[in-house]
Design goal:
806 residues; alpha+beta; Phenylalanyl-tRNA Synthetase, Chain B, domain 1; OB fold (Dihydrolipoamide Acetyltransferase, E2P); Phenylalanyl-tRNA Synthetase, Chain B, domain 3; 6 domains; 5-stranded antiparallel sheet; 38 strands; elongated
């Protein structure tokens, strides 16, 4: 927000140095990022009087001038300017001077005569007729009034003030205006604020005869104010208005457009002026645009609208994009005879959405996005009409057209003084608080230890209800000065923190994985549609129920992931290529499934890990899972054949606990390996974190070391080649014996190379198992052992048609 000192002085008695003003504003919560001179690039240029002019002896077009700069000795300036005369005063750039284009001036010998500077015109000083009459002439600037010789040119031209560039916080949209920031500046300076009084102009006739307004969507446009002006005189705006617009960085155009821009800066409320002859029937309709409707804006660009954008239209066409930019088809031109001034309120979220979707932002849209309020809409249009009237720019018609669904009634709030003092650690009385608030035009009346506050319409950041005490405490604190409140140590009640069971479980899982030699990885939650093709995931698989991002960074990050496997494969590739020497990674992360048509997508937490390298295989990865389950106290886990298409068909398993499938494990399919550009094979596991948590044992049971010896036995059996090792283990463990069977495991599998090879029939295979036998009551004898082995073989024969291999 740019605040010219000239404008500030209209409302406040400026009685401090610039540095002190910057300090005081900072303590009020307004950081002044820069103090910019009105003539920022001009240095060592002063006023001089030409005392003598002679023809240059060696150049027909040059003249030698003697000048008086207020010092004892006069200087000589060689110039080719034809408009200078003896006795006139002009700007002169002396040795070391710097001009607006960055040029530095040094004494120069010109055709044998030393010139100790150069005369300046408006172009060299960066000004034109707006700043000073005659500065637009393409020659040396002749000063219109007498000034002391040697006076700084900035002072002589009346351009020696500064412009404060103020950083605003998002909660203070009222300070996006000259009036709003000057209100705060007056309080910081301890001076009264001379609030402007707008003269209400009663127009001739009836405005309804010229224009009408209909709002089809009052939720997005709660108020629309308009005034009609006819018999327009389109001409340049007065010099004072042009100068002020230039000081804040706006280009003067003509009196009507300049008035809307001036009110925008002065009161912070965007306005627009339509050529009423271009609005069909003078009927303004505020409606949602039709899908695909095209509006050509003032910058000459065609912009395609969508149905969720708000449009200013007439019965036949769009004439402007609400809150963003007017339409080219209703632009004010030199031929405009009647205009409709618009001052409306649009909901910030809709304007933000429109600017993002159209990739187009303006000064007006920026203010609408931060928020404007309904009362200020009326003030702004009345100020615009006052300027039209005072500048003689046209004939005002009737009164204001006002379509209002907004609540413009006075707001009152009750604040608790005791609570405010406890927040600030102060001891202000209610009367002292009222006095502080009055300095920024917030009326408040003490009622015991309460404040009855009339919230000004422009302070939309002050809420009523439970937030009132905090909002008012913020105002009291900054008005009194946080630097005046003694510093104290923090105090408050303390309590012992504790991790919830879910977080504690996650920490235990991560600690265990690290202990098993894994590094934790974090991958993006976003992925690309191509990744699912690379993983060979079928179209019917649940993992295809992806959530698409509305505004993705790119197509490669347009979906929310449903699996962690793709990210870990990319992690493997990066670490392999960079030769980090790490071959084990795990990730605990969220995935999202678009399987809820009526609500939000389903979020799941998964644990996934990858192993690769010369010492890794399917069984080392299976051992990782078994050890993790052992640490977590998980029992009855099974590994059955099955898994996704991204695994090798013969090296994959589905993991279940008590019949509940919780994940899968397998060696990555060679086709997937090739699609990802992986240099070697890898083993990946993925577990449902929440399901795994449901199967942990909260209480671990104590198991004493066996008192009696364990007997180990091995058997080799012949079974059908499709029988899984886990099925055999289940049958062995289920055999009805009088001893305990433990630690059953397969240690050899042999497939015959031809029928009858090593006595194994066609369609069969040999499997060897080892298991432990023991008793909690006594030492086993040969009879106990032989009976147990016979019972196991009998059960295998009955259940799997297994034969003992001889």
């Amino acid at each position: 927000m740019k605040l010219p000192l000239k404008w500030l002085k209209d409302y406040v008695n400026y009685n401090v140095s610039h540095d002190e003003f910057v300090r005081r504003m900072l303590l009020r919560g307004f950081e002044i990022a820069d103090v910019i001179p009105e003539m920022p690039n001009i240095k060592n240029v002063c006023v001089c009087t030409i005392t003598n002019i002679e023809q240059h002896p060696n150049a027909e077009r040059l003249r030698v001038c003697d000048i008086d700069i207020g010092e004892e000795e006069q200087l000589k300036i060689v110039t080719n300017a034809a408009n200078v005369t003896v006795g006139c005063q002009v700007p002169v750039a002396l040795d070391g001077a710097r001009l607006t284009d960055g040029m530095e001036v040094k004494p120069t010998k010109m055709r044998g005569i030393m010139s100790y500077g150069m005369f300046c015109g408006g172009a060299e000083l960066g000004i034109n007729d707006v700043e000073y009459e005659g500065a637009g002439v393409d020659s040396v600037l002749i000063l219109n009034e007498r000034h002391p010789n040697g006076q700084r040119i900035q002072e002589a031209l009346g351009l020696d003030d500064v412009i404060f560039d103020i950083e605003l916080t998002p909660n203070r949209p009222d300070c996006q205006s000259i009036v709003g920031i000057c209100r705060e500046a007056a309080s910081a300076l301890g001076q009264p604020f001379n609030e402007p009084v707008i003269e209400r102009i009663q127009g001739e006739g009836n405005a309804d005869d010229y224009a009408s307004v209909t709002i089809d969507n009052p939720e997005l446009c709660p108020r629309y104010c308009a005034r009609v002006v006819t018999d327009l005189k389109i001409e340049p705006s007065p010099k004072w208005m042009q100068l002020r617009l230039k000081l804040v960085g706006l280009r003067p155009i003509n009196n009507i457009v300049d008035i809307t821009n001036y009110v925008l800066i002065e009161y912070g409320h965007p306005m627009h002026a339509f050529d009423l002859a271009c609005v069909e029937g003078g009927h303004i309709i505020v409606r949602n645009a039709d899908e695909g409707e095209v509006v050509t804006t003032l910058d000459g660009k065609d912009r395609t609208m969508s149905s969720d954008m708000l449009l200013i239209a007439d019965p036949k066409k769009g004439v402007g994009i609400a809150g963003v930019m007017g339409g080219e088809n209703s632009e004010i031109t030199a031929n405009t005879k009647a205009t409709l001034f618009e001052s409306a309120v649009f909901i910030p979220s809709n304007i933000r959405h429109t600017t993002q979707k159209l990739h187009h932002s303006t000064d007006s849209s920026a203010r609408f996005v931060k928020g404007v309020e309904a009362v200020n809409a009326e003030i702004a249009v009345n100020r615009a009409i006052e300027l039209v009237y005072k500048l003689g720019a046209g004939r005002v018609i009737g009164n204001m057209i006002d379509v209002c669904a907004a609540d413009v009634s006075e707001r009152n709030a009750i604040a608790d003084c005791d609570h405010i003092n406890s927040i600030l650690d102060t001891e202000f009385t209610a009367e002292q608080m009222c006095s502080l608030l009055a300095s920024i035009n917030i009326p408040a009346v003490p009622e015991g230890n309460k404040l009855n506050i009339t919230v000004p319409h422009f302070r939309t950041d002050i809420e009523t209800g439970v937030e009132t005490d905090w909002d008012i405490a913020e105002e009291i604190g900054r008005l009194y000065g946080y630097d005046n409140i003694p510093s104290t140590l923090m105090h408050g009640d303390t309590f012992q923190g504790k991790l919830g069971s879910r977080f504690a479980f996650e920490d235990l899982v991560k600690d265990t994985m690290v202990a098993l030699g894994f590094m934790e990885a974090y991958n993006y939650n976003f992925t690309s549609p191509q990744e699912y093709e690379m993983l060979r995931i079928p179209e019917t698989d649940e993992k295809r129920l992806t959530v698409r991002i509305r505004n993705p960074f790119g197509e490669d990050q347009s979906l929310m992931r449903t699996t962690l496997i793709g990210g870990l494969l990319r992690t493997m590739l990066v670490n392999y290529n960079r030769k980090t020497g790490v071959g084990r990674f795990f990730e605990v992360g969220n995935v999202h499934f678009n399987n809820n048509s009526e609500g939000l997508p389903e979020e799941r937490k998964l644990l996934s890990f990858i192993c690769f390298g010369t010492n890794e295989n399917f069984f080392t990865a299976k051992g990782v899972i078994e050890q993790l389950f052992n640490v977590l106290g998980v029992e009855n886990a099974r590994f059955d054949a099955g898994g996704g298409e991204y695994f090798h068909p013969g090296r994959k398993a589905i993991i279940s606990i008590d019949g509940d499938v919780i994940g899968e494990l397998g060696t990555i399919n060679s086709k997937v390996q090739k699609a990802f550009g992986l240099p070697s094979y890898s083993i990946v596991a993925e577990l449902n974190f929440d399901k795994l948590m449901n199967h942990i044992r909260a209480v671990r049971k104590y198991r004493p070391i066996p008192k009696f010896p364990i007997v180990q036995r091995d058997i080799a059996i012949i079974v059908d080649k499709d029988v899984a090792a886990q099925n055999v283990i289940d049958v062995i463990n289920s055999a009805k014996v009088r001893v305990i069977i433990e630690n059953c495991r397969v240690f050899d599998v042999y497939y015959p190379t031809e029928p009858g090879d090593k006595g194994i029939p066609e369609g069969k295979k040999s499997m060897a198992f080892s298991f432990d036998l023991r008793s909690d009551e006594r030492t086993l004898n040969d009879e106990d052992i032989n009976q147990a082995v016979k019972a196991i073989l009998k059960t295998l024969k009955f259940r799997l048609d297994a034969e003992l291999r001889s």
